[in-house]
Amino acid sequence: MAIGLVFSVALVYVYDYLNITLVYGEGLGQIARAETAQTPTELITHVVAAKKSLPEGGSAAWWASDETNFKQIQQDLDLVLGRAEAISALTSQNELYNSEMLDMHANLRVIQEKILIGCLAC
């Protein structure tokens, strides 16, 4: 009986690991690259790739939550894309350019955490 329980718990952890690394790994990697992008163009490239590899709907967690809902995450990524496109014509010495890049990097970190927390809480 105890062996069956241990096996079941191990199976759940393996499933969660595979779910995160195989299903969301590419998207998380692209978001991490976007978070460290030095230019809006580079950021846009990685966010577009992340959007393609992440689900368009559903939840990263077993329960429905706006925080872990992929429809909301896709919308958050769209907002980041719009902001990056808006500042792409500015020079890197522009104060607005720098503050927007920092803020977009912070937003991308939050998006990563939403996905990871949703997956790990399953």
Put the structure in a nutshell:
The chain has 122 residues and is mainly α. It contains 5 helices and no strands.
Write a structural description.
The structure is a single chain. Helices cover 75% and strands 0% of the residues. It is mostly helical. It has one domain (2-120). The chain is elongated, with a radius of gyration of 17 Å. The model has no long low-confidence stretch (mean pLDDT 84).
List the helices and strands and how they pair.
Layout: H1 2-23, H2 25-35, H3 40-53, H4 70-87, H5 95-120
**Largest beta-sheet characterization:** none
Between the first and last Cα atoms, what is the distance in angstroms? 24 Å
**Which descriptor suits the 3D outline?**
elongated
Please trace the helix and strand order, writing H or E for each element. Answer: HHHHH
The poorly predicted ranges are none
Strand content: under 5%
Query: In total, how many beta strands?
Result: 0
